[in-house]
Design brief:
The chain contains 4 helices and 4 strands; from the N terminus they run βαβαβαβα. With 129 residues, it is α/β, with parallel strands linked by helices. A 4-stranded parallel β-sheet has the order 3-2-1-4, with helices on both faces. The longest helix has 12 residues. 26% of the residues are buried.
Amino acid sequence: MSAIPDVTVVIATRDRRVELTRALGSVRRQEGITAEIVVVDDGSTDDTADLLREESSRGVVKVRHPRSLGVATARNAGIARATAPWVAFLDDDDMYAPHKLVEQLDAAARAEKPWVYSSVLAVDEGLRP
């Protein structure tokens, strides 16, 4: 990535390749912003490492813990690799709506605040609320 991204999205994961694939797709579909993706593999024993090798060629920054150190340590490792002025967290089994990040950054700018948060919308497997 040549320009500084708007936001770094940190995803901690462990043994959830399928869920991680879906989460990564939702970050890539963000509109109106540039996002750096940092995935911290917290000691996975499945084929998550294979996925991350593929994803690194698409610009995903990967961090690997050989054994699980816990989600807090994984998130902190992701923050340490962030290059954007904003950091967002995404759990590996969650997804972002297409305008989530741009709307949050706009809200922070309007309110002149250094952090923002949002609510959650639970959906079923068909993505219906």
